[in-house]
Design goal:
Distance between the termini: 58 Å
Structural class: alpha/beta
Radius of gyration: 31 Å
Shape: extended
Largest sheet: 5 strands, mixed
Number of strands: 16
Number of helices: 16
Strand content: 15-25%
Length: 486
Amino acid sequence: MNKVAIYVRVSTTMQAEEGYSIDEQIDKLTSYCKIKDWTVYDIYKDGGFSGGNIERPAMERLISDAKRKRFDTVLVYKLDRLSRSQKDTLYLIEEIFGKNDISFLSLNESFDTSTPFGKAMIGILSVFAQLEREQIKERMLLGKIGRAKSGKSMMVSKVSFGYTYDKLKGELIVNQAEALVVRKIFDEYLGGRSLIKLRDYLNSNGIYRGDKYWNYRGLLLILSNPVYIGMIRYRGEIYPGNHQPIIDTEVFNKTQEEIKKRQIEALEFSNNPRPFRAKYMLSGLAKCGYCGTPLKIILGYKRKDGSRSMRYQCINRFPRNTKGITIYNDNKKCDSGFYEKADIEEFVIAQIRGLQLNSYKLDNMFDKQPIIDVEGIEKQITSLDNKLKRLNDLYLNDMIELDDLKKQTQSLRKQKTMLEDELINNPAIMQDKNKNHFKEILGTKDITTLDYETQKSIVNNLVNKVFVKAGHIKIEWKIPFKKCEF
């Protein structure tokens, strides 16, 4: 038995006068179902809603019921009753109906996705939709490149420090007060200050970036931004700008040479040419097991061969009061010790290797997911669907105004979306999917034999946090979050 969902829509009274009234559409579509000996599951009616988008009460209900596979076919009078947007039409037919094994039929155009011709038409629609998307992207890209070549700023929503944006002229205007700070940053850096000391100097002297403190990355971006010599950077290319420069080209070039020089020195000292980027396996993951504050890398004493050991210690072991830095745990002193970096990393790798070898242990990690009341949530969604349907009927019968319909519909939709999200994110349903994803990242190749960068990538994809105490470690896995003590 073919269960059919009938969808009808009018956007204006003018359409009703032209033969597209709700009742006329329903009459023709139900008659067609009788001829075909099909069962009408439900009639979804949107009166007074544009076909320009799919944000309509009955359409929302249709999509929800389609995802729950409550019918076999969707029937409309004309294709534009479903949507006037080719993108939305393709989305509904392919992503909503097709993926749930639901056929789509338009009576007027004899468009039936259950037939070879209908399937071919979907392919044609898809090709033209993709072509339209690519043409729009190309036009936008050419427009932006043209704008950059003409010297106009590409930073309209986020203007570089030292400038304001003149919307009428489409140009950057020098902010004289901020420009003084920019020049000061370049002068101090070339004068020998490190970025850390420069940050501390600016913040301690009340020289802020608007209402925010300076930080390491923000200063580095200032020093490497060609906008300050009157240039525009877009998609890796540099173009002459129309705006006034703040820094001389000679000063800017010297600054770039100094940045490279200091990176080389950093490489020789700590084997890290870019100290502002996470280099180590547990960077951002390692936390103090006593106070929860992040652990940081410190260098041990020099060995006879000139090398240094690396250790983790809690940031709050020696609290800092410098303005502009992130404060953890109210900056309370932590009496924890330090931990050898190599020992912690080897331990984490060993635990991951254990999961590779012990499928029972891995399965056990996923067997204790919380259970939610699926049946109860589905009943609540059905109740909301019925309320949305009654609201639409009240509007069609002129018993409520359009503003009231939209206001109440919006509220009910929010409730429904929250419930649907809860079902979609149901740990019990997602368990197999999560487990397979975890296994895919885990892989079958012995992690202990892989190079450091590959190990780091695997760890960052599997591990959320690593809490470290003396003789005690907790690993919080991404499955979602689950702590395992060792």
